[in-house]
Amino acid sequence: MRAKLAIVAVGLGIILAGTSLRAHHAFAAEFDANRPLTLRGKLVKWLVINPHSWFQLDVTGDDGKVVTWMIEGGSPNQLIRLGVTQKSVQIGGELVVEAYQAKDGSNKAVGKSFTLADGRSLLLGGSAPGAGGDVK
Amino acid sequence: MTHRLLVTGSGLSVLIAAAWLSATPVSGQSPAGPAAAAKPYKTPRTVDGQPDLQGIWTNQTYTPLQRPANVTKEFYTLDEVLAAEKRAAVREAAVSTPGTTGDVHYSGSEFGLDKSQGTLARSLRTSLIFDPPSGRLPPLSAEGEKRAAAFAEMRKKLGRFDAAQNNELDDRCITTTNAGPPMLPYAYNSNYQIVQAPGYVMILVEMMHHIRMIPLEDRARPPQSVVALTGVSRGRWEGETLVVETTNLNPTTVFGGIDLDAPLDRPAPFRGVSDKLKVTEWFTRIDAESISYKFKVEDPTTWSAPWSAELPMKQTIGPLFEHACHEGNFGLYNTLRGARAEEEKAAAGEKKPN
After folding, report:
1. Is the pTM of this model over 0.90?
2. Would you call B16 and A136 a contact, using CB atoms and an 8 Å cutoff?
3. Using the 8-state DSSP alphabet, how is residue A15 labeled?
4. Which of B13, B326, B335 sits opposite A26 (nearest CB)?
5. Do A36 and B167 touch (CB under 8 A)?
6. ipTM
């Protein structure tokens, strides 16, 4: 009985893993998995646009020069639904972004994760006000 | 493409799911349940007397369109589904392997895009398709095979990232599987608002902000040469059920332009249907928080038989937000630039003397 259940569970897991259709566009074509970056900088602008938001980050290099990076993130609709808005994100605050750089070598990257200087997630995600609140 | 957006999670009421299965009046496919049989749901009425389907709904589900090859039964038990969802939620939030192609993506969890972070319209079905009873799409007709082969040939010649025109429909913000008909869930933002007025039902599709306007009368349809992204629909009430028949669908954009027969985690461009495609939908409210959504797809020039599927729509929080999607905004440019950079790199590599 135990063995039988385990087989069912594995099968179901595989099914569920392939359920959602896809992410919006082909990130692997745009960004380079061999160019991981950790960027620490000041958030100067958050473009809350669909299908992907963009974060503008001013990063000061070792030579003191400021370089502006554009970092791609997710669709804002669900964030807004969870109570995260432009007002929740502090412009001017320091941000650490783990990212992958664009294949064309420009100062663009996709942000894998966004964290504040104290280690908290910038976008709160599942702990945002209302997150999970609509789960019945 | 991300692992995180491909997996699942949830936390819905067991009772609602059980009631949905036992009370579904449309399909007749669901196992009867004693609790629901004793208390049939009475659909409230709008001011003008229509059964009231209004509200904000989601059809976000983990159930695949087609039944996996290793599954033979029509329904899972609730325990099986709950256990699988729990495991999937963990995978959904897991960080993928750094430096891998699958990792090149923003965190879905941070952006609230994990399924475990939203409302789930849970189905116990092992596949959305219930007819044919195999739970799988019927075989293509001879003409359908021919068309599919022609599409595949064309695809070989035109690379996915050669030009904007070759990008898929959702890359370009044209449409997704959400709008339909038939309305099928997408990876996220699978939200709908239904509004009723005398003589009309309107369905607002959050992504990509489509509006389905359905007149409740059998008025004349335009000629077959006139097509629209969501087709031309005519609705009528059959008792508690809204029946919508849609024709004049655009053969190149229907089903979000995705090949329904491809593995869902490796979507392929849709191979095309004919302009004779007809979709019939049945919307039946089965409790205060759920609609049974059933549809039938007919196109004898594409499939050897019609096929039908059923999935729930579950009430969720509103309002719907505008999804003003701008041709992938920076994404389209960057994707094409990335492909060109790869080509340049490859060409330079070839030119190197060593």
Report:
1. no
2. yes
3. H
4. B335
5. no
6. 0.77
Residue B292 corresponds to which tokens in the numbers above? 């049974």
Chain B positions in Cβ-Cβ contact with residue A24 (cut-off 8 Å) = 170-171, 187, 328, 331
Q: Which two tokens stand for residue B348?
A: 């330079």
Query: Is the pLDDT assigned to residue B185 strictly greater than 60?
Result: yes
What residue spans define the domains of chain A?
25-127
CATH of the domain at B239: 2.40.128.20
Q: Which residues pair with A75 in a beta bridge?
A: none
- The reply to whether CATH 4.10.800.10 applies to domain A25-127 is no
The residues that bridge with B325 in the sheet, in sequence order, are A50
- Give the domain extent around B301: 43-68+127-323
| Number of domains comprising chain B | 1
Cα three-residue angle B59-B276-B130, rounded to 5 degrees: 40
Q: Are A105 and A40 in contact (CB under 8 A)?
A: no
- Torsion, Cα of B281, B287, B288, B294 (10° steps): -10
Q: What angle do CA B206, B4, B229 make, to 5 degrees?
A: 30
Scanning the structure block, which residue is given the tokens 């087709």?
A: B231
- The Cα B267–Cα B263 span in angstroms is 6
Query: Which residue numbers in chain A have pLDDT < 50?
Result: 1-22, 125-136
